[in-house]
Amino acid sequence: MKINRAVLGAVLTIVLFALPLTSEGQPARSAESVYRIGFLIPISVPDPASAQPPIRRNLAFTERMKELGWIEGRTFKMELRFSDRDEGKLRSVALELARLPVDVIVAVSSPAVQAARTATDTIPIVAIDLETDPVAKGFATSLARPGKNITGLFLDLPELNGKRLELLRELVPRLRRVAVLWEPGLDPAPLKAAEAAARTASVVLHVVSASRRADFEQALRAAAQQQSGAVMVIQSPLFDAYAKDIADLAVQHRLPSIAVFKRFAEAGGLMSYGPDLEALFAKAADYVDRISKGARAGDLPIERPARFELVVNLKTAKALSLTIPPSLLLRAGQVIE
Length: 337
Hints:
alpha/beta, Rossmann fold, five-stranded parallel beta sheet, elongated, disordered N terminus
């Protein structure tokens, strides 16, 4: 499925087999060639104009490419593909990219990495996967030397959801019931970590599921009906794409909320705690640049985000009649007023 470039940003593509190979086994780029980059993102986007985060993330990627000396449309072109998380559909879209062919695939999320891996074992894959242990999943032999055609950025820190639960408890000390907004089909590790943290904190978790944008209203309504005192949003490209919808519904149902990326707090969610996703997309451009110059994906060490930021939206707190403790505000990297 092709997405309007003016809406969703650009990504490039180049015919792999038409290029000569270097001794490193990667395509050598001539001065006249256009390097093709495929993006694979497991989100169904019936209304592209409303899915703002993919635009911003890809802009971070293209801006970094520009800094590295690339010229969009002249030296690189992007092939952006979206699909829902249906395994068959996602694999089909990944195969489409592989058959173009593209020179490299940037795969966003664990299902996208798995689909790209199934589609090709020769085209380099740069992962942005915030759900998975790449070694345990079989994507890599080791972090220092992945050894296959996959490298990139992985965040296997499910305990961060325990930290988000702690932040909610700090804000609402008498919190006893929390809804967890979850997308079925994701790696279950973050959800299991949240459940473990809830048991330690004597908090009851209610899992409410959403697989598409149309599910959000029912999920948040169910959270309120279950008398949840707050909602925690587990990381998902779908949830990030429609952060404003979820944030607005949380306020409508009087639910304090926390998610992973600051986009959520900027869109009206109460809090976010996690890595800077724009920075991850920019870092993916560094990987693509190195691969284009002959580096093997399997020789490039996998990286993990090391910095995490707390963002608090005071306007939303006021709408929910909540007072943010000074101790929490002091730890916030950004306060939205």
